[in-house]
Design a protein that fits this description.
Blueprint: H1 10-117, H2 121-135, H3 143-207, H4 211-238, H5 244-247, H6 251-262, H7 266-285, H8 295-318, H9 325-349, H10 353-365, H11 371-402, E1 408-410, H12 413-422, H13 428-432, E2 437-439, H14 444-463, H15 470-498, H16 504-519, H17 521-532, H18 546-574, H19 591-606, H20 612-634, H21 644-662, H22 679-690, H23 693-699, H24 712-729, H25 737-763
Antiparallel strand pairs: 1-2
Length: 764
C-alpha cells in the first residue's frame, strides 16, 4: 500500500525487501533437494534390475498363446455351424408365428372391403376400429400393415363424405317437404283446437241455464260430443294420418350421426347440421314480396315455418344430443323475431281489413302458444283498426255523397218502421201526425248509425280467441269506436261542410242530422255493453266521445252558414249600381236590396228547424254584415263624390233593411235588438238628411247625444264627398247667396270635424 501512496523512496525499499525474500526461498529449495537426492538414485537402480525379468516373461506368454490358438481353430468352426443352424430354426418358428398373427388382419381387411362395397358403412367403421385397436398393433412392424394403417383414414373420410352426401340429400328433401309437413301439422292443430272450442262453447252455453235442468243438459251434451268425437276418430282412423316420418326418410340423419359418433366427430356433425338448418331457417323465414296480397301467401309462409320446426322437434326426440332443447328454443326465438318483423312489415301493407282479420285467424287458429306473437297480434289489431277506419272513411264519404239532404219521407207505417228499425228515433209529436209525413233527419243518419254498428262488429271479430277478458274487449271496442267518431266521421263531416257545393239548405240539414246522431250515442254505448256484458257503471268503462264530435261538426256547420250568408250578401252588394250624383231619389228602394231581403226571408224560413240560438245568431250576423257592407260602400275611397239625392236613395234602402229587421224574420229577439244592427247607418243618414250639424257638434261626447254612434272621421269622410259634389254640380253656386251660405257652412263643419278627429288622434 505504501508503494502506491507515493511515499519517498517507497519503491526502492520495496524492491530491496523483495530481493531479500527471493534469496531466502532459493536457500530453502536447495536444502530440500539435497535432502532427497540419495533416495532417487536408489530407486533408479532397482528399476534397472527388474527389466531383464520382464523380457523373459513376455517371451513365455507369447509362446503359450500361439499354441492355444492352434488348438481352438477346429472347435470354433464346429461352434459357428451349430449357431447358424439354430438361427435358421428360430427364424422359421418366428415366420410361422407372424403368419398366424397376420392372417386375421388380412381376413378383417378383406371383410372391411366387402362391407364398403355393400355400403355397410357403420359395420365397416366397427371393423376398422377392431383392426386398429386389436389386430394391427400386433403386426404393426410390417410394411403391408403400414399401408393398411395409411388407408384406414382415407376409408373413414370416404365414409364421411358418402354419409354427408346422404345428409345433404336429406336436407334438400326436408326443405322441399317443409310446407307439406307444416300444412299437415297445422290441419291437425286446427282440428284439435276446433274440437276444444266447440266443447268449451257447449259447456258455456249450458252453464247459464237453470241449475235443476242445467246439470242433466250438460251431461247430455257432453255425451253427444263424446259420441261425435268417437265417430270422428273412427273416420280419422279409416283415413291415413300422415306424419313427418311418412313424408320424409330420416334414416340418413341417424346413419350420419352414428358414423360421426363412431369417428369421434359427433360435435363436428352437430355443428354442421345446426349450421345448415340455421341457413334453411333463414330461407324459410324469408317471405315472398307479394305475401301480403293474399291470405294464401301467409298460409304458405306459416306452413313452411311449422314444417321446419316439426322436423326439428322430431329430431330432438329421436336423437340424443344432435338437437337440444336449448338449441331449438334459441332457433325458435330467432325465428320468432324474424316472423314478428316480417308480419309487422307486411301487415302494414294490408289495406283490406278482411285480409288482416284472416291473418289474425291464421296466427290464432293454428295455436302458436307464444306471448310475443300475441303481443304482435295487438300491434296487428291496431293496424286492423287503421284499415277499418280507412274503409269506413270511404263508406261515410259515399253515404254523404249519395244523401239528398232533405227530410226522410215516409208514406205509411211500414216505411216508418223500416227507418226506426235502423235508427233509434223517437218523437211523440211526429207519431201523432198522420201519414204521409217526414222525419226531420235525412237518409244518411240511419245509414251512418248502421255503419257504426257494423264497425263495432268488425272490431269485435279481431278480439275473438285472443284470450282477453270482457273488460279489455269492452275497452278496446270503445276506444276503436271513439277513434271512428272523433277522427274518421269527424273528418268526413268537416270535409263535407267545407265542400263548395254544400249550400245553406244542406248545412241546415247537416246540423239537424248531427243533433240526432248525438242523441243516438247513448244507444251505441248500450249496444257495446250488450255485446261485452260490461255495465256502463263500471269504474274503468270508457265513454264514447260522439257528443263532442257532433258538437264540433255542428259548430263548424254553423260557422259555415254564417260565412255563406255573408258571401251571399256580398254577391248582392256587388251588383248594386247607385248613381251617386243623382239630384233626387227614385222614391223606392233599390232592386238589388229588395232581392237580397227576399233571399234572407226565404233563407230564415228554412232555419225554423234549427235550434233558436243558431237561427238568431245567423240572422244577427247577416244584418250586421249587411250594415257593415253598406257603410263601407258609403265610405269607399274610390267613391269621390256623393249627392244629397244619392243619400236619400241610400236612406230608402236602409229603411227597407230596418223594416226587415223589425219584421222578426227569426223569432226570439227581444224588442228592437235586431234593428240595432243598423243603428250606425241610421244615425249617420239622419245627420245628413236633417243637416243637424249644430246638434251633433254641441252634443258630441255626451251619452245622451242623438248621434252618439256617428264617428267624426266617418262624418268628415262623407261630408267631404258631398262638398266635392256641390262644387262640381253647382257652377253658378257662388252667384246665389243661399248656396254660398251652405258652402260656407259645410266648410265650417268640415273644420270643426277635423279638429274633433285630430283631438281624438292626439288623445289616443
Amino acid at each position: 500500500r505504501s508503494v502506491y501512496d507515493d511515499q519517498p523512496n517507497a519503491h526502492q525499499k520495496f524492491m530491496e525487501k523483495l530481493d531479500a525474500c527471493i534469496r531466502n526461498h532459493d536457500r530453502e529449495i536447495e536444502k530440500m533437494c539435497n535432502f532427497h537426492h540419495q533416495g532417487f538414485v536408489d530407486a533408479i537402480t532397482e528399476l534397472l534390475k527388474v527389466r531383464a525379468d520382464a523380457e523373459k516373461l513376455k517371451v513365455q506368454v507369447t509362446d503359450t498363446n500361439r499354441r492355444l490358438q492352434d488348438a481352438g481353430k477346429e472347435v470354433i468352426a464346429q461352434t459357428e455351424e451349430i449357431i447358424r443352424c439354430r438361427v435358421q430354426q428360430r427364424n422359421i418358428t418366428t415366420v410361422v408365428e407372424k403368419l398366424q398373427l397376420c392372417l386375421p388382419v388380412l381376413e378383417m381387411y378383406s371383410k372391411l372391403k366387402e362391407q364398403m362395397s355393400v355400403k355397410r358403412y357403420y359395420s365397416a367403421l366397427k371393423t376398422m376400429e377392431q383392426l386398429e385397436n386389436l389386430y394391427l398393433p400386433r403386426v404393426s412392424q410390417y410394411r403391408f400393415c403400414q399401408i393398411m394403417m395409411e388407408n384406414l383414414p382415407k376409408l373413414r373420410e370416404e365414409i364421411k363424405e358418402i354419409s354427408m352426401s346422404d345428409l345433404k340429400d336429406f336436407l334438400e328433401s326436408i326443405r322441399k317437404h317443409s310446407d307439406r309437413i307444416g300444412e299437415t301439422a297445422m290441419k291437425q292443430a286446427q282440428q284439435q283446437k276446433t274440437f276444444s272450442t266447440a266443447l268449451q262453447k257447449q259447456n258455456n252455453v249450458n252453464y247459464g241455464r237453470n241449475m235443476h235442468l242445467g246439470r242433466n243438459r250438460i251431461l247430455e251434451s257432453k255425451n253427444e260430443i263424446t259420441l261425435k268425437r268417437t265417430f270422428e276418430d273412427e273416420d280419422e282412423h279409416d283415413e291415413e294420418v300422415l306424419t313427418a316420418q311418412d313424408l320424409v326418410d330420416f334414416s340418413p340423419v341417424y346413419r350420419c350421426l352414428h358414423i360421426y359418433s363412431v369417428l369421434g366427430d359427433a360435435e363436428i356433425f352437430e355443428n354442421y347440421y345446426r349450421k345448415q338448418r340455421r341457413k334453411q331457417a333463414r330461407l324459410v323465414l324469408q317471405p315472398q314480396s307479394s305475401m301480403h296480397e293474399t291470405v294464401e301467401g301467409y298460409r304458405r309462409y306459416f306452413s313452411q315455418i311449422v314444417g321446419f320446426f316439426v322436423v326439428e322437434d322430431h329430431i330432438l326426440h329421436v336423437t340424443q344430443g344432435l338437437v337440444t332443447r336449448t338449441y331449438t328454443d334459441e332457433l325458435w326465438n330467432m325465428a320468432l323475431s324474424k316472423i314478428i318483423a316480417v308480419l309487422r312489415t307486411h301487415s302494414s301493407y294490408c289495406s283490406d281489413p278482411d285480409l288482416v282479420l284472416e291473418l289474425k285467424n291464421l296466427i290464432v287458429g293454428y295455436g302458436f302458444p307464444v306471448n310475443r306473437l300475441f303481443d304482435l297480434l295487438f300491434e296487428i289489431r291496431d293496424q286492423y283498426s287503421e284499415t277499418l277506419l280507412k274503409k269506413w272513411s270511404g263508406l261515410f264519404r259515399d253515404i254523404f255523397e249519395a244523401d239528398n239532404y232533405s227530410p226522410i219521407p215516409v208514406a205509411n207505417e211500414e216505411e216508418y218502421r223500416i227507418v226506426i228499425s235502423k235508427f233509434p228515433f223517437q218523437d211523440p209529436e211526429l207519431d201523432k201526425q198522420s201519414f204521409p209525413k217526414k222525419l226531420p233527419m235525412s237518409q244518411s243518419v240511419p245509414q251512418i248509425y248502421m255503419q257504426v254498428k257494423e264497425f263495432i262488429y268488425a272490431s269485435l271479430k279481431f278480439s275473438e280467441s285472443l284470450h282477453r277478458s270482457s273488460t279489455e274487449i269492452d275497452d278496446m271496442l270503445r276506444k276503436s269506436t271513439n277513434l271512428l267518431l272523433t277522427r274518421t266521421l269527424s273528418s268526413c263531416l268537416q270535409n263535407l261542410i267545407k265542400k263548395p257545393h254544400i249550400g245553406l239548405t244542406e248545412l241546415v240539414q247537416i246540423i239537424i242530422n248531427t243533433t240526432h246522431l248525438e242523441q243516438a250515442c247513448k244507444y251505441l254505448e248500450d249496444f257495446i255493453s250488450n255485446i261485452t256484458n260490461i255495465s256502463q257503471l263500471t269504474v274503468h268503462t270508457a265513454r264514447l266521445y260522439g257528443l263532442s264530435t257532433f258538437k264540433d261538426a255542428r259548430h263548424a256547420a254553423e260557422g259555415e252558414i254564417y260565412t255563406k250568408l255573408n258571401q251571399k250578401i256580398d254577391e248582392f252588394i256587388q251588383i248594386a249600381d247607385y248613381d251617386w250624383t243623382m239630384s233626387e231619389s227614385d222614391g223606392r228602394a233599390s232592386g238589388y236590396l229588395m232581392d237580397l231581403i227576399n233571399f234572407l226571408r226565404s233563407t230564415f224560413q228554412v232555419f225554423t228547424h234549427l235550434p233558436g240560438k243558431v237561427a238568431q245568431t245567423a240572422c244577427m250576423s247577416a244584418c250586421q254584415h249587411l250594415s257593415m257592407s253598406l257603410m263601407q260602400m258609403l265610405l269607399d275611397s274610390e267613391l269621390k263624390q256623393i249627392s244629397m239625392g244619392a243619400i236619400q236613395q241610400f236612406n230608402l234602402d236602409v229603411i227597407q233593411c230596418e223594416l226587415f229587421a223589425s219584421s222578426e224574420p227569426v223569432p226570439g229577439f227581444q224588442g228592437d235588438t235586431l234593428q240595432l244592427a243598423f243603428i250606425d247607418l241610421r244615425q249617420l243618414l239622419d245627420l245628413f238628411m236633417v243637416w243637424d250639424w249644430s246638434t251633433y257638434l254641441a252634443d258630441y261626447g255626451q251619452a245622451t247625444s242623438k248621434y252618439l254612434r256617428v264617428n267624426p272621421s266617418t262624418a268628415l269622410t262623407l261630408l267631404e264627398k258631398m262638398k266635392d259634389s256641390s262644387k262640381k254640380n253647382n257652377i253658378f253656386a257662388q252667384f246665389r247667396k243661399n248656396d254660398r251660405d251652405k258652402q260656407k257652412l259645410i266648410e265650417t263643419v268640415v273644420k270643426q270635424l277635423r279638429s274633433l278627429v285630430n283631438g281624438m288622434s292626439q288623445h289616443t
